[in-house]
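Same chain as my last thread, 334 residues:
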Amino acid sequence: MLIGDVARRSGVSARMLRHYDALGLVRPTGRTRAGYREYSGEDIRRIFHIESLRSLGLSLREIGRALDDRDFTPSELVDDLIRQTQERIAAETELLTRLRRIGAAEPAGWEDVLQIVALLRDLGATSAGRRQRAALSSAGEVPVPVEALVEAALSEADPNVAGALRWALAQSGDDALAPLAQGLGSPAAEVRVRAVRSIAEIPDGGATTLLRDALASPDVVVRRYAALALGTRGVADAVPTLVDMVVEGVNDVDAADTLSALASRPASAEEIAARLVGRLALGTVEASARLRVTQALAEIPGITASRALADLSQDEDRAVALTAAYILRIRDAR
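reply #2:
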């Protein structure tokens, strides 16, 4: 079969067939009397084999080795191709994400594009200082897309940079909530914590709804951050978790302060005091926990708190008893 017929049947151009011949990949079995290349059936099968391997991303050199080396095993080469393809997909995905973020910022001109690109690059810099400056600059005239800020906030380990990123997200308001909500469901504990802390700094609105949902999280650390944030917003649902924090000695000072703020209404004060007293009634609370509860009751007004302090002034632990008695004297003097 002549080269023109082979090209039509195989879909491989005559020029490429000549290139294969020059490389020694497919040498026509014969020649006509006029000197034209003449391909046999075996030659054509080899052409189809070459095209199949090219579709996998193999170079012509690798294809020649695969077809001619009898000791060649494909597994190593296929593994290498998988790795190269994964790297290429990751790079293309990163580029696509960057382009979408630039588009979302709606740049007015190339200067805006260049500024956004610089900020995105600095958000991923190895220098914590550069990342922090980028975060603080993100709410400027040409803002960084909120998705980029969320991604940076959920991966940031440096406390100063993390604080700057949470501030930047707070300026974005509810626009940041959807991607942060995904962070709450992350399998990584540190990402969940960063997400709830970022949500806690976003002003009231949709953030409060997300924080209420976070109170039911299986992650106790997420629940605690959500409770502290909700308590400062006056949400009574946070009380049980805050009481647990006081008893367990986890951020107990902040939890007690938040309970005190929630106790500004008489009905709330009685509920909070009852919950604190209820934990004491379990009979298994250690002296250190009883002392923390005593200190928390100091700022809770009402009869229930006063009665509990009177009982605690008779506690077997001297520190608890003295603290309760001191608090009672101050309350009586008011």
